[in-house]
UniProtKB/TrEMBL annotation:
It comes from Geoalkalibacter halelectricus. It holds the Pfam family Aldedh. The lineage of its organism: Bacteria, Pseudomonadati, Thermodesulfobacteriota, Desulfuromonadia, Desulfuromonadales. The active site is at E247. Residues 12-473 form the Aldehyde dehydrogenase domain. CDD domains: ALDH_KGSADH-YcbD (cd07097). Keywords: Oxidoreductase. Belongs to the aldehyde dehydrogenase family. The keyword Ribosomal protein does not apply. This is Aldehyde dehydrogenase family protein. InterPro entries: Ald_DH/histidinol_DH (IPR016161), Ald_DH_C (IPR016163), Ald_DH_CS_CYS (IPR016160), Ald_DH_CS_GLU (IPR029510), Ald_DH_N (IPR016162), Aldehyde_DH_dom (IPR015590).
């Protein structure tokens, strides 16, 4: 089996060890061998990026545009294969895997366009005879640390804007998903980028991640992952004057009001809570339902849940693939136990499921009779588990929706324009969804949350430049 190497300073290099990558839908299936970088290699990657920065920052925008556009074209041409690899490795279903690969291609295309749209401003000074120019410059070396749940799209929406703005990149993917990361890196490596502008270092967070965080040659870190890790890393970067952007967890509410279209409400709940095995920071894990529709909603939701097919991610007809690994499955089972101990009623699912292939299969679970104070409604579970909270009216629903330490996405299902408009104004979240699932976002508009979910400027869309550039104000006597 071929060893997939790290990519440092334009060269493919073996690591100090190897990682084997396992298919969560079939744990007998070894996907590949991947080089494991150590601290020294992480430092070499940073040094290569630093050395490449001076020329890359002043490279023509046509060159930058063409390279990013080429990467996008290549990803789109290979989306079926990339999607298949992603699904085999991470466990989301094949349509979801191909959809994610497509999204990554579109992201590179979008940021190719952004290269040409990086603008500045020229203003009159308050002093006669002086002109003021405001321009944007790249930061330098950007470390990208990404999670396992979107192994191509999240790296894409960090790497593409970083390069578009003239930065060099050191990319450390999650150790669980080196296959997708390597495939993406291979496309980037052959795109015509000068050596050192883009580097891949596969390895653990504790070793490679920590080295990047503490390297004084790293100017910025863009991180997506758990709150525990994100919050611990941020002060270290801020403390040495580096920039940091964090996308972390969610405990996203989906409010269902009495006047909701029942089918829309159930569709949003199924999509938001259970697709991608619930392993999305945008997943709806709290279903906040007003009393008048509560019983009908639960009954119809359970009916639909029972029809969901949990099976091998690559099997045609699978709606929900496996949980990503044993550790995440243990976490999910723990929360199922905690929910029961807290007095919540498990009305559907939560069972380990046996299929033809040995995998981490868990049937989608629904708790009812829960309160917002329960741990299952306060802590991110990151699995196919949701809880219904019964409320009396819209005002109570809104208060419960906002009563969380997180603030990524917040959804409402209603036919009332008044309540929809009010919810858009008062939901304490970075993203608001009306009659749509809380998960599943566009690639060309800002993405990010409030409170404990995010830190730093928004990712994605034109707003991404706020993080990946630094503003300069120049005064000239005319
Ligand atoms: N909001 C989101 O999008 C996500 C949230 N999560 C939440 O986090 C939980 C745990 O998932 P997990 O993937 O382990 O999340 P982590 O936060 O541990 O991992 C995210 C990334 O950070 C790296 N990392 C871990 N520790 C360090 C460190 N000390 N210094 C630098 N980098 C580090 C990881 O590396 P490596 O894993 O390779 O060691 C990975 O690349 C999930 O159960 C879920 O609740 C997880 C993924 C995405
Ligand atoms: O819901 C989406 O489209 C994005 C989700 C995401 O970014 C995440 O789970 O990390």
């Amino acid at each position: 089996m071929m060893l997939h190497k790290n990519f440092i300073d334009g060269q493919w290099v073996a690591g100090s060890g190897e990682t084997l990558n396992i298919n969560p839908s079939d744990t007998r299936d070894v996907i590949g061998r991947y080089a494991r970088a150590d601290r020294a290699q992480a430092q070499e990657a940073v040094a290569a990026a630093r050395a490449a920065f001076a020329s890359w920052r002043s490279a023509g925008i046509q060159q930058r545009h063409d390279i990013l556009d080429h990467i996008g074209t290549e990803i789109l041409a290979r989306r079926e294969d990339l999607g298949r690899l992603l699904s085999r490795e991470e466990g989301k279903t094949l349509p979801e895997g191909i959809g994610e690969a497509t999204r990554a291609g579109m992201i590179f295309k979008f940021f190719a366009g952004e290269v040409l749209r990086l603008d500045g401003e020229r203003l009159p000074s308050v002093r006669p005879g002086v002109e003021v120019e405001v321009s944007r410059e790249p930061l330098g070396v950007v470390a990208v640390i990404s999670p396992w749940n979107f192994p191509i799209a999240i790296p894409a929406w960090k790497i593409a804007p970083a390069l578009a703005c003239g930065n060099c990149v050191v990319f450390k993917p999650a150790a669980l998903v080196p296959g997708s990361a390597w495939a993406l890196a291979e496309i980037i490596a052959h795109s015509g980028l000068p050596a050192g502008v883009f580097n891949l270092v596969m390895g653990s967070g504790a070793e490679v991640g920590e080295t990047l965080v503490d390297s004084t040659q790293v100017d910025a870190l863009t991180f997506t992952g758990s709150n525990t890790v994100g919050r611990a890393l941020a002060p270290r970067l801020v403390g040495r004057g580096a920039r940091v952007q964090l996308e972390m967890g969610g405990k996203n509410p989906l409010v269902v009001l009495d006047d909701a279209d029942l089918e829309v409400a159930v569709h949003c709940a199924i999509q938001g809570a259970y697709y991608s095995t619930g392993q999305r920071c945008t997943a709806s894990s709290r279903l906040i339902v007003t009393a008048g529709i509560h019983d009908r909603f639960v009954e119809r939701l359970v009916e639909k849940m029972q029809a969901l097919r949990v099976d091998h991610a690559l099997k045609e007809g699978s709606d929900i693939g496996p949980v990503v690994d044993q550790a995440q499955l243990d976490q999910d089972l723990d929360y199922l136990r905690i929910g029961r101990e807290e007095g919540a009623r498990l009305v559907c699912g939560g069972d380990l499921v046996e299929r033809e292939t040995p995998g981490y299969y868990l049937s989608p679970a629904l708790f009812t009779e829960t309160s917002n104070a329960m741990r299952i409604n306060r802590e991110e579970i990151f699995g196919p588990i949701a809880a219904v909270i019964r409320v009396q009216d819209y005002e109570e629903a809104l208060a419960v929706a906002n009563d969380t330490e997180f603030g990524l996405t917040s959804g409402i299902v209603t036919t009332s324009l008044k309540h929809a408009s009010d919810f858009k104004r008062r939901a304490q979240a970075g993203l608001v969804m009306v009659n749509l699932p809380t998960a599943g976002v566009d690639y060309h508009v800002p993405f990010g949350g409030r409170k404990g979910s995010s830190f730093g400027p928004r990712e994605q869309g034109g707003y991404a430049r706020e993080f990946f550039t630094i503003v300069k104000t120049a005064y000239t006597a005319s």
